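re: that chain from earlier
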Amino acid sequence: MAAVNRQVFPDIREDMFISMTYGILDAENGKLTLARAGHEPALLFRKETGKVELLRSPGLALGIDSGSVFERVTRDQEIELKSGDCVLFYTDGVKEALDAHDEEFGIERMCETFRIAAPLGAEGILSQMQSELGRFTGQGPQMDDITLVAIEKR
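^ sequence. v structure.
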């Protein structure tokens, strides 16, 4: 992540930044290593407890600092996934989607939809999230990108 920041920093205007998350999944042992550069925290569903956690690995958005502060602040986070655990990555356009009354979908609604859908696995999560977003927003215009990526540990 630090190398990416050093590469893009010279090309970023003062009023701009880039947020991102990257993850490395070791499929054999279920270890997920995450780093977050100012991006939305991923959601983790633990099958054992049925609860959703926010994965808030510390990190500064790309392009804000040339390197020293970025590298001091940004840290990897390691999570051990067990069978049935699921992770949901998303862009802010999901939680900021608006209904006809200009109410946001919000993180609480996202977490609840994810919690209910997670036992259905990654495909079920994506299907349920899209369905719930569509029901919530109705025919209103989409104001931002909506990106969802789900993974499950089998």
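The domain at 2-152 is CATH 3.60.40.10 (Phosphatase 2c; domain 1).
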